[in-house]
Amino acid sequence: MRVLLFLLFSFVFSPVFSQTEGWATFAKTKFEAKYNEKAGEYFLYPAFPQALKDAVGKEFELEGHYLPIDIEG
Predict the structure, then answer these.
(1) How far is 42 from 24, CA to CA, in rounded Å?
(2) Which residues have a Cβ under 8 Å from the Cβ of 43 and sit 6 or more positions away?
């Protein structure tokens, strides 16, 4: 039963983001310079494409590397 459920979910969620489309979709993200009153300077804010907004809350996998950035140091 568990195997059947696993296969069902694998097939249901696999078309959400195929590997070849995944990075290309992320690459469509644009950045807009907006003034931040609190900081007193401009920051770049992401403007995500609709395909990424539609994928919110869904799991998908991308191949590649993740570089964690530790703000605290």
Answers:
(1) 27
(2) 33, 34, 36
User: What is the pLDDT at residue 50?
Assistant: 94
Give pTM, 2 decimals: 0.54
Whether the predicted pLDDT of 38 surpasses 60:
yes
Question: Which pLDDT tens digit goes with each residue over 14-27?
Answer: 555 555 577 888 89
**3-state secondary structure string across the chain:** CHHHHHHHHHHHHHHHCCHHHHHHHHHCCEEEEEEECCCCEEEEEEECCHHHHHCCCCCCCCCCCCCCCCCCC
Where residue 40 falls (left for φ over 0; alpha for ψ -120 to 50; beta otherwise) is left
